[in-house]
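Can anyone check this?
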Amino acid sequence: MPAPARVLCIQHLAPETPGAIAGALHGRGLRVEIVRTYLGEEVPATMAGADGLVVMGGPMGVHDDDRYPNLNDEKRLIDDALAKDLPVLGICLGSQLLAAALGARVHRGPKKEIGWFPVTLTEDGRADALFAGVTSPFTAFHWHTDVFDLPAGAVSLARSDLAACQAFRAGACAYGLLFHLEVTRHTVEQMARAFQVELDQERVPAAQLVTGAVKHLPHLGAVSAQVFGRWAAAVAWRAPAGS
């Protein structure tokens, strides 16, 4: 029996786990290999032996290479995945790294977007292979300072009041999601604890984030199951036999 397809997942911080993404990948019988950069684990030099790449969020920025040398390694890994036409999924920081790899400008947004806010699909988003059938707008979890311009040749899939591009697709199966579609209640609680100082500075009550999770996750969970399930299916379908 051939080995299941293998997906690399770069995790930058303990609280920001792949959450619903991992569930969708495991549901498709795919192997998930998590590289925990916050523990000093090395980012692979290439995508050799891997069939897909997930890059998670984190408190650092795309241009913080001097403080986080692993970001340069991640950019090279994304470049390798794109060159090999492998499925890529970038979440928050991961979407910014993907946008930068595609030549787009990543810059500070008008204000920090932290909390539960609506995301509206574009016309292309409503027709996209992952998002088709998703009710728009839907409320998602956000926690970011930086935003990105739409990469040349990419397709804008979603927007919010504070970010003209909340999601995009490059090629057939490289996706960047600025919002957090993967979160669970536990993820939200852990992030609120880890970044309590930032929440205090922004005057965002941690309890408000958790209350929002209780209210919005039942619907968001259905959206994430569809979107990540279809992305996982694309990985499985595109993986060579025996990978």
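Reply from J.R.: I decoded it. Residues 9 and 136 are 28 Å apart (CA to CA).
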